[in-house]
Write a structure and sequence with these properties.
Blueprint (H helix, E strand, L loop, with lengths): L1 H15 L2 H31 L7 H13 L7 H6 L17 H6 L6 H7 L6 H4 L7 E2 L11 E2 L4 E2 L10 E8 L4 E8 L5 E2 L6 E2 L4 E7 L6 E8 L14 E10 L4 E9 L7 E7 L7 E6 L9 E5 L5 E7 L4 E6 L12 E3 L5 E9 L2 E8 L9 E5 L7 E4 L2 E2 L3 H5 L5 E7 L6 E8 L9 E12 L14 E6 L4 E2 L2
Parallel strand pairs: 1-3, 22-26
Antiparallel strand pairs: 2-27, 4-5, 5-8, 6-7, 8-9, 10-11, 11-12, 12-13, 14-15, 15-16, 16-17, 18-19, 19-20, 20-21, 23-24, 24-25, 25-26
Helix pairs in contact: 1-2
């Protein structure tokens, strides 16, 4: 509005033609021109930073090189591979008629590629869920020079040649044995709907545990917390829900403590459960469940800080707010301290990590089993305020970046030997057959300026960018 009236005044100045006005006119046009240039420059730089928008790959490379300059330790040749931007072209099939059932179920039309992803009859399903014969990887396969490569989305075999069952999982590095333990939902059963319009589910089987020294070769340690077969009032009765188990070790009590989301088939119980064991490989003894701080709690994780204080982070208030609070010293309960963060942002699937005294969190939005856009946040105190950094996903293609590579965050661990680099762990859920959900592990790097204009920093880029790089295959340095 003000711009157009200024130029109208300028035009009047010219047509009036009087010498008296010409100096004023020049000044006005200079000022207008200056603001135009400033505006264009700011537009240009915003476009350059918005990697998740549709920009050409050369723009992306530019941004990424910028990041690399700030990361001297990334000059290691293998690390350099991790931060290379990898494009992925998915050919869409021609439009086709859908069954009335599928079209009715979706009132809000998702991106066509997401629709293909959710349709278990899609002709391009193999792109999201490649089959066992062609696309399995692991220590039992003869992989030649691709041994120890991760293939995000392909079927990952354990040391016995069975697909790994550890969904919604987390990793514990056991310092006593220098061994990694991967805990997750063991879902190796049929998927069905408990009742009409209920969510797709698998009966609780229990928490699976796998051990590894190298984060690639995983040995099945069995079910370390099993379902309850007969007692219908028990939290772990197979008709209920057990999700996102995470294990931390208490130096104080020398116990391994498992926290998990406990629910009924309708997701109305919305509680956390706690179990305990003397050994990382169990058996875990189930202690109890509760609504932490008296609130509903669904997707959750636990984070153990350097100082030994552990925190519970959970989606609450019908998934609209994240709650964060410290655990008691024995890690068996929450304390009365709790902060509401990311209020009204509807984030779930939280995963927390820390680098140089700054806390980072990657979360998803809430769209059930359908994949959506991830967001990274940063904070100087884990209790907040948490500042939004934007979508961390880089590479693949636009839909990949808008769907977290068709996956949902679950955990982030430091990438051994490379400060500032992490492994981002996510689940590519397969609601038609949940046991066949895939793992998307990718390198995550902290560095470079954040994308988004930030709320609390008065225009100064205080935080680094969190970047998750797509690779169809990659390996640890
Ligand atoms: C493995 O070897 C094959 C054949 O020599 C080569 O084409 C391929 O690029 C190699 N893969 C890796 C990951 O080095
Ligand atoms: C069934 O589980 C409930 C809740 O854990 C418990 O209170 C009850 O004693 C159990 N019943 C039997 C028969 O074990
Ligand atoms: C879930 O809701 C359905 C329909 O409202 C009901 O029939 C069923 O009993 C509920 N199940 C549980 C476990 O609450």
């Amino acid at each position: 509005m003000s711009g157009s009236s200024a130029s109208a005044a300028g035009l009047r100045g010219f047509s009036g033609g009087g010498c008296r006005y010409s100096l004023l006119t020049i000044i006005i046009w200079t000022v207008v021109g200056f603001f135009l240039v400033v505006h264009l420059v700011s537009l240009y730089s915003r476009k350059d930073n918005n990697i998740h928008d549709d920009v050409s790959s050369s723009d992306q490379l530019q941004v990424v090189h910028q990041h690399q300059h700030q990361h001297l330790h990334l000059h290691h040749p293998v690390v350099h591979q991790l931060v290379r931007v990898e494009e992925e072209i998915l050919r869409m099939p021609p439009p086709r008629k859908r069954s009335p059932r599928t079209s009715k179920r979706r009132s809000r039309k998702p991106i066509p590629l997401v629709e293909e992803f959710l349709d278990d009859k899609s002709p391009i399903r193999h792109l999201f869920f490649p089959g066992l014969k062609t696309a399995a990887f692991g220590p039992t396969k003869d992989m030649g020079n691709e041994t120890s490569y991760y293939f995000p989305g392909k079927i990952w075999m354990d040391t016995e040649g069975n697909p790994i069952q550890a969904h919604g999982g987390g990793i514990l590095l056991d310092e006593k044995s220098n061994t990694y333990y991967w805990y997750g939902e063991y879902k190796d059963g049929p998927t069905y709907h408990a009742h009409k319009r209920g969510p797709a589910r698998v009966d609780i089987i229990g928490v699976g545990c796998y051990s590894s020294k190298d984060l690639w070769t995983w040995k099945n340690e069995g079910i370390v917390l099993g379902a309850e077969e007969t007692n219908k009032t028990h939290d772990l009765h197979k008709s209920n829900v057990l999700e996102r188990p995470k294990v931390i070790y208490s130096e104080k009590t020398q116990k391994y403590v498992m926290w998990m989301h406990i629910d009924d088939a309708n997701y109305t119980k919305a509680s956390v459960g706690v179990a305990i064991s003397d050994n990382p490989t169990g058996p875990f003894e189930y202690l109890y469940s509760k609504r932490p701080h008296g609130f509903d709690s669904r997707d959750m994780t636990v984070f153990k800080d350097d100082d030994g204080v552990a925190y519970l982070i959970y989606s609450s208030e019908v998934n609209s707010v994240l709650h964060i609070g410290p655990l008691t010293e024995d890690y068996l309960d929450v304390t009365p301290v709790m902060k509401r963060v990311m209020v009204g942002q509807h984030r779930e699937a939280p995963s927390i990590f820390k680098h140089q005294k700054v806390y980072y969190m990657v979360t998803s939005w809430c769209t059930g089993w359908a994949p959506n856009e991830a967001l990274a946040h940063a904070a100087e105190s884990i209790m907040g305020p948490w500042e939004k950094l934007g979508n961390p996903c880089i590479g693949g293609n636009k839909v990949f970046r808008l769907t977290t590579f068709f996956a949902q965050s679950t955990y982030v661990i430091p990438l051994p030997g490379v400060p500032g680099a992490f492994i981002f762990m996510a689940d590519r859920w397969n609601p038609a057959d949940l046991r066949d959900s895939r793992y998307v592990w990718l390198p995550l790097v902290i560095g470079g300026p954040a994308d988004q204009p930030l709320e609390y920093n008065f225009g100064f880029p205080m935080w680094s960018r969190v970047s998750i790089y797509w690779h169809s295959k990659w390996r640890l340095p």
